[in-house]
Amino acid sequence: MDIEEKLAILADSAKYDVSCSSSGSNRKNKGGIGNSAPSGICHSWSDDGRCISLLKILFTNECIYDCAYCVNRASNDRPRATFTPDEVARLTLGFYKRNYIEGLFLSSGIKNSPDYTMELIYKTLYLLREEYNFNGYIHAKAIPGSTLQLVNKVGLLADRISVNIELPSRTSLDKLAPQKKAEDILKPMKNIGDKIVARKENKQKFRNTPKYVPAGHSTQLIVGATPENDNKIVNLAASLYNNFNLKRVYYSAFMPVKSDARLPALNKPPLLREHRLYQADWLLRFYDFSAQELFTEDQPNLDYRLDPKLNWALNNLHKFPIEINKASYEELLRVPGIGPRSAGRIVAARREGSLSYLNLPKIGMVLKRAKYFITCQGKYQAGIPFQEEIIEDRVIKEMGKKDLHQTSLFSLGELDDG
Ligand code: SF4
After folding, report:
1. CATH 3.20.20.70 residue window(s) in the chain
2. What are 109-148's pLDDT values in tens digits?
3. Ligand 1 atom closest to Cα of 63?
4. Assigned CATH topology for domain 3-24+37-288
5. What is the per-residue pLDDT across 257-295, written as a single tens digit (0 to 9) for each?
6. Atom 6 of ligand 1: nearest residue by CA position
7. 180 Cα nearest atom in ligand 1
8. C-alpha angle 108/51/46, rounded to 5°?
9. Which atom of ligand 1 lies closest to the CA of 71?
10. For ligand 1, which residues put their CB under 6 angstroms from it?
Protein backbone atom coordinates (compact mmCIF):
# COMPACT_ATOMS: atom_id res chain seq x y z
CA MET A 1 0.00 0.00 0.00
CA ASP A 2 1.49 3.38 -0.91
CA ILE A 3 1.74 6.29 1.47
CA GLU A 4 -1.15 8.21 -0.14
CA GLU A 5 -3.54 5.30 0.37
CA LYS A 6 -2.38 5.02 3.97
CA LEU A 7 -2.90 8.73 4.44
CA ALA A 8 -6.47 8.53 3.12
CA ILE A 9 -7.31 5.68 5.51
CA LEU A 10 -5.51 6.99 8.57
CA ALA A 11 -6.69 10.59 8.25
CA ASP A 12 -10.28 9.36 7.89
CA SER A 13 -9.86 7.12 10.94
CA ALA A 14 -8.70 10.07 13.05
CA LYS A 15 -11.69 12.29 12.37
CA TYR A 16 -13.71 11.23 15.41
CA ASP A 17 -11.08 12.35 17.87
CA VAL A 18 -12.03 15.87 18.93
CA SER A 19 -9.23 16.42 21.40
CA CYS A 20 -7.83 18.59 18.70
CA SER A 21 -10.74 20.48 17.14
CA SER A 22 -11.45 19.08 13.76
CA SER A 23 -12.85 19.46 10.32
CA GLY A 24 -16.37 18.08 10.70
CA SER A 25 -17.75 19.48 7.46
CA ASN A 26 -19.31 17.23 4.83
CA ARG A 27 -19.50 19.71 1.94
CA LYS A 28 -18.39 17.91 -1.20
CA ASN A 29 -16.78 19.34 -4.33
CA LYS A 30 -19.49 19.64 -7.00
CA GLY A 31 -17.23 20.82 -9.78
CA GLY A 32 -15.83 23.88 -8.02
CA ILE A 33 -12.63 24.45 -6.12
CA GLY A 34 -11.76 22.62 -2.92
CA ASN A 35 -13.32 19.78 -0.99
CA SER A 36 -13.82 19.91 2.74
CA ALA A 37 -15.03 16.32 3.06
CA PRO A 38 -11.73 14.47 3.38
CA SER A 39 -10.23 14.77 6.82
CA GLY A 40 -6.56 15.25 7.44
CA ILE A 41 -5.98 18.84 8.43
CA CYS A 42 -7.64 20.30 11.48
CA HIS A 43 -7.30 23.49 13.47
CA SER A 44 -6.33 23.81 17.04
CA TRP A 45 -5.19 26.52 19.43
CA SER A 46 -1.64 26.75 20.67
CA ASP A 47 -0.78 27.71 24.23
CA ASP A 48 -0.41 31.37 23.29
CA GLY A 49 -3.88 31.48 21.66
CA ARG A 50 -2.84 31.21 17.99
CA CYS A 51 -5.01 29.13 15.68
CA ILE A 52 -2.79 26.52 14.06
CA SER A 53 -3.43 23.90 11.41
CA LEU A 54 -2.36 20.35 12.15
CA LEU A 55 -1.96 17.19 10.12
CA LYS A 56 -4.39 14.93 12.00
CA ILE A 57 -3.75 11.23 11.53
CA LEU A 58 -3.61 7.90 13.28
CA PHE A 59 -0.35 6.01 13.29
CA THR A 60 -2.39 2.88 12.77
CA ASN A 61 -6.11 2.11 12.72
CA GLU A 62 -5.43 -1.52 13.57
CA CYS A 63 -6.54 -2.20 17.11
CA ILE A 64 -6.52 -5.19 19.39
CA TYR A 65 -9.31 -3.64 21.51
CA ASP A 66 -12.98 -3.62 20.69
CA CYS A 67 -14.48 -0.49 22.25
CA ALA A 68 -18.16 -0.44 21.29
CA TYR A 69 -18.27 3.27 20.35
CA CYS A 70 -15.17 3.27 18.13
CA VAL A 71 -15.01 3.09 14.35
CA ASN A 72 -11.58 1.44 14.61
CA ARG A 73 -12.66 -1.34 16.95
CA ALA A 74 -11.21 -4.77 16.14
CA SER A 75 -14.55 -6.24 15.06
CA ASN A 76 -15.34 -3.45 12.59
CA ASP A 77 -14.75 -4.50 9.01
CA ARG A 78 -12.89 -1.60 7.43
CA PRO A 79 -9.68 -0.98 5.51
CA ARG A 80 -6.68 -1.02 7.84
CA ALA A 81 -3.29 0.60 7.46
CA THR A 82 -0.19 1.38 9.51
CA PHE A 83 2.43 4.02 8.85
CA THR A 84 6.10 3.65 9.64
CA PRO A 85 7.70 6.34 11.83
CA ASP A 86 9.65 7.59 8.84
CA GLU A 87 6.49 7.88 6.70
CA VAL A 88 4.79 10.06 9.32
CA ALA A 89 7.93 12.17 9.70
CA ARG A 90 8.29 12.67 5.93
CA LEU A 91 4.59 13.47 5.49
CA THR A 92 4.72 16.03 8.29
CA LEU A 93 7.83 17.65 6.88
CA GLY A 94 6.44 17.65 3.34
CA PHE A 95 3.14 19.28 4.40
CA TYR A 96 4.98 21.73 6.61
CA LYS A 97 7.35 22.83 3.87
CA ARG A 98 4.40 23.38 1.51
CA ASN A 99 2.85 25.53 4.23
CA TYR A 100 -0.23 23.31 4.57
CA ILE A 101 0.27 22.74 8.29
CA GLU A 102 2.03 24.08 11.32
CA GLY A 103 2.14 20.85 13.26
CA LEU A 104 1.06 17.25 13.79
CA PHE A 105 -1.73 15.59 15.76
CA LEU A 106 -0.81 11.93 16.10
CA SER A 107 -3.17 9.43 17.66
CA SER A 108 -3.34 5.67 17.19
CA GLY A 109 -5.19 2.41 17.56
CA ILE A 110 -3.42 -0.21 19.63
CA LYS A 111 -1.36 -2.55 17.48
CA ASN A 112 0.09 -5.68 19.16
CA SER A 113 0.25 -4.04 22.61
CA PRO A 114 0.08 -0.58 24.22
CA ASP A 115 3.88 -0.42 24.63
CA TYR A 116 4.54 -1.58 21.07
CA THR A 117 2.36 1.26 19.76
CA MET A 118 3.70 3.86 22.18
CA GLU A 119 7.24 2.95 21.14
CA LEU A 120 6.33 3.62 17.50
CA ILE A 121 4.86 7.00 18.43
CA TYR A 122 8.04 7.80 20.35
CA LYS A 123 10.22 6.78 17.39
CA THR A 124 8.17 9.04 15.11
CA LEU A 125 8.56 12.04 17.39
CA TYR A 126 12.23 11.30 17.93
CA LEU A 127 12.80 11.22 14.16
CA LEU A 128 10.94 14.48 13.69
CA ARG A 129 12.68 16.34 16.49
CA GLU A 130 16.19 14.88 16.43
CA GLU A 131 16.77 13.71 12.86
CA TYR A 132 14.65 16.16 10.87
CA ASN A 133 15.03 19.01 13.37
CA PHE A 134 11.29 19.75 13.25
CA ASN A 135 10.27 22.41 15.75
CA GLY A 136 6.59 22.69 14.86
CA TYR A 137 3.75 21.86 17.24
CA ILE A 138 3.15 18.18 18.04
CA HIS A 139 0.14 16.80 19.90
CA ALA A 140 0.58 13.08 20.61
CA LYS A 141 -1.75 10.56 22.15
CA ALA A 142 -0.63 8.50 25.14
CA ILE A 143 -1.82 4.93 24.70
CA PRO A 144 -3.67 3.67 27.80
CA GLY A 145 -1.77 0.80 29.38
CA SER A 146 1.68 1.79 28.10
CA THR A 147 4.48 2.17 30.63
CA LEU A 148 4.97 5.57 32.22
CA GLN A 149 8.62 5.71 31.12
CA LEU A 150 7.52 5.58 27.49
CA VAL A 151 4.82 8.21 28.04
CA ASN A 152 7.41 10.46 29.66
CA LYS A 153 9.87 10.01 26.80
CA VAL A 154 7.11 11.16 24.42
CA GLY A 155 6.32 14.02 26.81
CA LEU A 156 9.85 15.37 26.38
CA LEU A 157 9.31 15.64 22.62
CA ALA A 158 5.62 16.59 22.28
CA ASP A 159 4.03 19.97 22.93
CA ARG A 160 0.83 18.39 24.15
CA ILE A 161 -0.21 14.89 25.19
CA SER A 162 -3.70 13.59 25.65
CA VAL A 163 -4.94 10.45 27.32
CA ASN A 164 -8.57 9.95 26.38
CA ILE A 165 -10.79 9.00 29.29
CA GLU A 166 -13.70 8.54 26.82
CA LEU A 167 -16.38 7.43 29.30
CA PRO A 168 -17.52 9.16 32.47
CA SER A 169 -17.61 6.16 34.85
CA ARG A 170 -15.92 2.85 35.53
CA THR A 171 -19.24 1.06 35.00
CA SER A 172 -19.55 2.51 31.50
CA LEU A 173 -15.93 1.76 30.72
CA ASP A 174 -16.41 -1.87 31.81
CA LYS A 175 -19.50 -2.12 29.66
CA LEU A 176 -18.34 -0.42 26.45
CA ALA A 177 -14.57 -0.77 26.56
CA PRO A 178 -13.97 -3.84 28.72
CA GLN A 179 -10.32 -4.20 27.69
CA LYS A 180 -9.49 -0.74 29.02
CA LYS A 181 -8.89 -0.35 32.72
CA ALA A 182 -9.64 2.97 34.42
CA GLU A 183 -6.20 2.86 36.08
CA ASP A 184 -4.51 2.58 32.67
CA ILE A 185 -6.03 5.97 31.84
CA LEU A 186 -5.89 7.74 35.20
CA LYS A 187 -2.31 6.71 36.09
CA PRO A 188 -0.65 8.33 33.05
CA MET A 189 -2.89 11.40 33.45
CA LYS A 190 -1.77 11.80 37.04
CA ASN A 191 1.84 11.16 36.09
CA ILE A 192 1.77 13.77 33.31
CA GLY A 193 0.09 16.34 35.59
CA ASP A 194 2.68 15.75 38.34
CA LYS A 195 5.55 15.98 35.87
CA ILE A 196 4.26 19.30 34.53
CA VAL A 197 4.16 20.74 38.05
CA ALA A 198 7.60 19.32 38.91
CA ARG A 199 9.05 20.72 35.72
CA LYS A 200 7.73 24.21 36.54
CA GLU A 201 9.33 24.03 40.00
CA ASN A 202 12.64 22.76 38.61
CA LYS A 203 12.66 25.44 35.97
CA GLN A 204 12.84 28.06 38.71
CA LYS A 205 15.99 26.45 40.11
CA PHE A 206 17.68 25.18 36.95
CA ARG A 207 17.50 27.21 33.77
CA ASN A 208 18.23 24.23 31.53
CA THR A 209 15.34 22.06 32.72
CA PRO A 210 14.06 20.31 29.58
CA LYS A 211 10.57 21.10 28.31
CA TYR A 212 7.84 18.61 29.18
CA VAL A 213 4.51 18.91 27.32
CA PRO A 214 4.70 22.71 27.41
CA ALA A 215 1.17 23.08 26.00
CA GLY A 216 -0.26 20.86 28.77
CA HIS A 217 -2.31 17.69 28.62
CA SER A 218 -5.91 17.08 27.67
CA THR A 219 -8.54 14.38 27.43
CA GLN A 220 -11.74 13.59 25.56
CA LEU A 221 -15.10 12.52 27.01
CA ILE A 222 -17.81 11.00 24.86
CA VAL A 223 -21.23 12.45 25.66
CA GLY A 224 -24.47 10.55 25.15
CA ALA A 225 -23.20 7.00 24.68
CA THR A 226 -23.80 6.16 28.35
CA PRO A 227 -26.43 7.15 30.95
CA GLU A 228 -24.33 9.53 33.09
CA ASN A 229 -25.96 12.91 33.60
CA ASP A 230 -24.33 16.32 33.11
CA ASN A 231 -23.75 16.72 36.84
CA LYS A 232 -21.58 13.58 36.81
CA ILE A 233 -19.72 14.72 33.68
CA VAL A 234 -19.03 18.27 34.85
CA ASN A 235 -17.95 17.05 38.30
CA LEU A 236 -15.58 14.60 36.65
CA ALA A 237 -14.11 17.39 34.51
CA ALA A 238 -13.69 19.60 37.60
CA SER A 239 -11.92 16.81 39.42
CA LEU A 240 -9.58 16.23 36.43
CA TYR A 241 -8.70 19.93 36.33
CA ASN A 242 -8.13 20.09 40.08
CA ASN A 243 -6.32 16.82 40.65
CA PHE A 244 -4.47 16.16 37.42
CA ASN A 245 -3.55 19.68 36.38
CA LEU A 246 -5.35 19.11 33.09
CA LYS A 247 -5.36 21.86 30.47
CA ARG A 248 -8.51 20.92 28.59
CA VAL A 249 -11.37 18.45 28.62
CA TYR A 250 -12.90 18.01 25.18
CA TYR A 251 -16.49 16.79 24.91
CA SER A 252 -17.48 14.72 21.93
CA ALA A 253 -21.15 14.16 21.12
CA PHE A 254 -21.59 10.44 20.55
CA MET A 255 -21.96 9.52 16.89
CA PRO A 256 -23.17 6.00 16.27
CA VAL A 257 -20.73 4.45 13.80
CA LYS A 258 -21.78 0.82 14.19
CA SER A 259 -24.90 -0.63 15.78
CA ASP A 260 -24.31 -2.37 19.08
CA ALA A 261 -26.88 -3.50 21.62
CA ARG A 262 -24.89 -1.76 24.37
CA LEU A 263 -25.24 1.63 22.70
CA PRO A 264 -28.25 3.94 22.62
CA ALA A 265 -30.08 4.32 19.31
CA LEU A 266 -29.63 8.01 18.49
CA ASN A 267 -30.87 9.70 15.32
CA LYS A 268 -28.20 12.35 15.52
CA PRO A 269 -25.34 13.26 17.84
CA PRO A 270 -26.34 15.38 20.89
CA LEU A 271 -24.52 18.49 19.67
CA LEU A 272 -26.46 21.01 21.73
CA ARG A 273 -25.69 19.04 24.90
CA GLU A 274 -22.02 18.94 23.90
CA HIS A 275 -22.10 22.71 23.40
CA ARG A 276 -23.70 23.36 26.81
CA LEU A 277 -21.08 21.16 28.45
CA TYR A 278 -18.34 23.23 26.83
CA GLN A 279 -20.01 26.34 28.24
CA ALA A 280 -20.22 24.79 31.71
CA ASP A 281 -16.58 23.79 31.44
CA TRP A 282 -15.75 27.40 30.49
CA LEU A 283 -17.45 28.54 33.70
CA LEU A 284 -15.27 26.21 35.76
CA ARG A 285 -12.05 27.38 34.18
CA PHE A 286 -12.54 31.10 33.70
CA TYR A 287 -15.47 32.23 35.86
CA ASP A 288 -14.63 30.59 39.17
CA PHE A 289 -17.80 28.50 39.25
CA SER A 290 -17.78 25.16 41.02
CA ALA A 291 -19.46 22.16 39.41
CA GLN A 292 -21.86 21.93 42.37
CA GLU A 293 -23.27 25.40 41.68
CA LEU A 294 -24.55 24.38 38.26
CA PHE A 295 -26.80 21.52 39.35
CA THR A 296 -29.33 20.59 41.97
CA GLU A 297 -30.66 17.18 42.98
CA ASP A 298 -33.80 17.91 40.99
CA GLN A 299 -31.86 19.21 37.98
CA PRO A 300 -28.88 16.92 37.35
CA ASN A 301 -28.71 18.03 33.71
CA LEU A 302 -28.07 21.43 32.17
CA ASP A 303 -31.06 23.24 30.74
CA TYR A 304 -30.22 23.00 27.04
CA ARG A 305 -32.43 25.98 26.16
CA LEU A 306 -30.19 28.37 28.07
CA ASP A 307 -26.49 28.79 28.51
CA PRO A 308 -25.46 27.54 31.97
CA LYS A 309 -24.45 30.96 33.28
CA LEU A 310 -27.80 32.49 32.37
CA ASN A 311 -29.57 29.50 33.85
CA TRP A 312 -27.59 29.85 37.07
CA ALA A 313 -28.45 33.56 37.26
CA LEU A 314 -32.16 32.88 36.76
CA ASN A 315 -32.08 30.23 39.47
CA ASN A 316 -30.27 32.65 41.80
CA LEU A 317 -32.16 35.82 41.08
CA HIS A 318 -31.96 36.76 44.78
CA LYS A 319 -28.28 37.62 44.13
CA PHE A 320 -29.29 40.20 41.49
CA PRO A 321 -29.57 42.91 40.30
CA ILE A 322 -26.04 43.91 41.15
CA GLU A 323 -24.92 47.51 41.15
CA ILE A 324 -22.27 48.06 38.50
CA ASN A 325 -20.53 50.75 40.54
CA LYS A 326 -20.18 48.63 43.68
CA ALA A 327 -19.94 44.96 42.68
CA SER A 328 -16.60 43.17 43.03
CA TYR A 329 -14.82 41.78 39.97
CA GLU A 330 -16.00 38.30 41.00
CA GLU A 331 -19.62 39.45 41.28
CA LEU A 332 -19.45 41.17 37.91
CA LEU A 333 -18.22 37.93 36.36
CA ARG A 334 -21.44 36.24 37.46
CA VAL A 335 -23.61 38.59 35.40
CA PRO A 336 -24.81 36.97 32.16
CA GLY A 337 -23.26 38.94 29.33
CA ILE A 338 -20.24 40.10 31.34
CA GLY A 339 -17.00 38.21 30.79
CA PRO A 340 -13.50 38.70 32.18
CA ARG A 341 -12.75 41.42 29.63
CA SER A 342 -15.85 43.51 30.37
CA ALA A 343 -15.54 42.98 34.13
CA GLY A 344 -11.93 44.18 33.99
CA ARG A 345 -12.93 47.25 31.99
CA ILE A 346 -15.73 48.13 34.41
CA VAL A 347 -13.40 47.86 37.42
CA ALA A 348 -10.78 50.02 35.67
CA ALA A 349 -13.29 52.63 34.44
CA ARG A 350 -14.89 52.97 37.90
CA ARG A 351 -11.62 54.33 39.24
CA GLU A 352 -12.22 57.45 37.15
CA GLY A 353 -15.70 58.06 38.60
CA SER A 354 -19.19 56.60 38.87
CA LEU A 355 -20.41 54.86 35.67
CA SER A 356 -23.78 55.73 34.19
CA TYR A 357 -25.83 53.36 32.05
CA LEU A 358 -24.75 55.34 28.97
CA ASN A 359 -21.07 54.88 29.85
CA LEU A 360 -21.28 51.09 29.67
CA PRO A 361 -21.43 50.60 25.86
CA LYS A 362 -18.64 53.16 25.54
CA ILE A 363 -16.27 50.91 27.50
CA GLY A 364 -17.21 47.99 25.25
CA MET A 365 -19.86 46.32 27.42
CA VAL A 366 -22.72 44.61 25.58
CA LEU A 367 -25.95 45.25 27.45
CA LYS A 368 -28.24 42.96 25.46
CA ARG A 369 -28.33 40.31 28.19
CA ALA A 370 -26.59 41.99 31.11
CA LYS A 371 -29.25 44.71 31.41
CA TYR A 372 -31.67 42.27 33.07
CA PHE A 373 -29.26 41.62 35.94
CA ILE A 374 -27.73 44.99 36.79
CA THR A 375 -28.49 48.40 38.18
CA CYS A 376 -26.40 51.38 37.32
CA GLN A 377 -26.34 54.35 39.71
CA GLY A 378 -29.24 52.62 41.43
CA LYS A 379 -31.48 52.40 38.36
CA TYR A 380 -32.81 49.19 36.79
CA GLN A 381 -33.30 49.89 33.11
CA ALA A 382 -34.22 46.55 31.55
CA GLY A 383 -37.71 47.82 30.72
CA ILE A 384 -39.42 44.74 32.21
CA PRO A 385 -40.23 43.69 35.78
CA PHE A 386 -37.41 41.97 37.67
CA GLN A 387 -39.01 38.51 37.79
CA GLU A 388 -37.55 35.14 36.83
CA GLU A 389 -40.33 34.00 34.47
CA ILE A 390 -40.52 37.35 32.71
CA ILE A 391 -36.74 37.64 32.22
CA GLU A 392 -36.47 34.01 31.09
CA ASP A 393 -39.31 34.45 28.65
CA ARG A 394 -37.77 37.64 27.24
CA VAL A 395 -34.30 36.12 26.87
CA ILE A 396 -35.63 33.01 25.11
CA LYS A 397 -37.65 35.18 22.75
CA GLU A 398 -34.58 37.30 22.03
CA MET A 399 -32.51 34.20 21.32
CA GLY A 400 -35.02 32.82 18.81
CA LYS A 401 -34.81 29.42 17.21
CA LYS A 402 -31.99 30.42 14.91
CA ASP A 403 -29.71 31.37 17.79
CA LEU A 404 -30.56 28.21 19.64
CA HIS A 405 -29.61 26.16 16.61
CA GLN A 406 -26.46 28.13 15.94
CA THR A 407 -25.14 27.77 19.45
CA SER A 408 -24.90 24.06 18.81
CA LEU A 409 -22.56 24.71 15.92
CA PHE A 410 -20.28 27.32 17.40
CA SER A 411 -16.93 26.37 18.79
CA LEU A 412 -15.73 27.73 22.10
CA GLY A 413 -13.44 30.21 20.46
CA GLU A 414 -16.49 31.93 19.03
CA LEU A 415 -18.46 32.23 22.25
CA ASP A 416 -19.50 35.68 23.32
CA ASP A 417 -17.79 37.36 26.18
CA GLY A 418 -19.82 36.29 29.20
S1 SF4 B 1 -8.48 1.37 21.98
FE2 SF4 B 1 -8.88 3.30 20.92
S3 SF4 B 1 -8.71 2.80 18.74
FE4 SF4 B 1 -8.90 0.87 19.83
S5 SF4 B 1 -11.08 0.38 19.77
FE6 SF4 B 1 -10.69 1.47 21.70
S7 SF4 B 1 -11.07 3.63 21.26
FE8 SF4 B 1 -10.83 2.56 19.29
Report:
1. 3-24+37-288
2. 999 999 999 999 999 999 999 999 999 999 999 999 999 9
3. 4
4. TIM Barrel (3.20.20)
5. 878 899 998 888 899 999 999 999 999 999 999 999 999
6. 67
7. 1
8. 65
9. 8
10. 63, 65, 67, 70, 72-73, 109-110, 177
